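Supplementary Methods, section 5.1.

A reviewer requested that the exact input to the structure prediction be made available. We therefore reproduce it here, unchanged from the version used in the analyses.
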Amino acid sequence: MLRAVLCGLLLLTSTACSIKKMAVRQAAGFFSESRKVFETETDLELAETAIAANLKLLEAMQVHDPENAQLNLLLAEVYSVFTLSFIEDKMEEAEAQRREAEKEHQRRRAIALYLRARDFAARALLPRLEVDPTKTSEVELQKSLARLSRDDVAAVFWYAFAWGAAINLDRENVEALSELPKIEILMAQVKNWDEGFYFGGAWLFEGIYFGARSELMGGNPERAKAAFEQNLKLTEGKMLITRYFYARTYCIFTQNQNCFEENLRQVLSAPPDIHPAQKLANALAKKKAQRLLKRRSEFFVD
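The structure derived from this sequence is encoded token-by-token as follows.
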């Protein structure tokens, strides 16, 4: 009798867990499909509030299905995009206003959130990769990547993007900087599989990666320029954030004021619906471009 009761309880528990997982997986699919509602929002404050709230809801769902690859990658993507769009923007705003304490606060927030995004991506990637990129050599990482397929492009991209973005904001951390070649390897694999994945994101990352540092620190202006141009080609120039980063990195580091002004003016003069499905990203790019253009005298000597 006792055994029958215990078996019944175990069955009920198992069934309850299965029902929760089914509900989570259906909800994850719903959120994945409904992201266009956020991507077409033009009110930046509303978008920030709504995305932040939904991030915590997605995390609550993930607790009930922690190995759900779709959900983990959705969290990695949304945390990465949220941090780039809003937290880094707050950091840049504080920098423009010379509020150093606030700038540092937002920088640390951004690093922590990017690493959170990387860890969600790792849940989808590491079981397939069978090594931890943070703990393995570049040679072993390349060997492991060779065993993956085009189906793994999202996991590799979001892992590399989030990790690389965190390191890019932590440039005084020598240990972290030493990991950048691994991120370059991961992004190279993304380009081999699908160079247009996520609006040519691997090319945009390469442009920032090589354009945001001096040559003494591993930067490569010509490679950065070529990467930005390839991204613009793939996106037909409709993702305005590319031109913003082009100006912010390559144009400033090469002291090319014409390049700086031309890219930012193209952002500001572009119609709001140049990419109807990405109104939010382009509204953010316009805000950033306007602020950066006003700071021109800080970067160039007339």
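The mean pLDDT is 90. These observations are discussed further in the main text.
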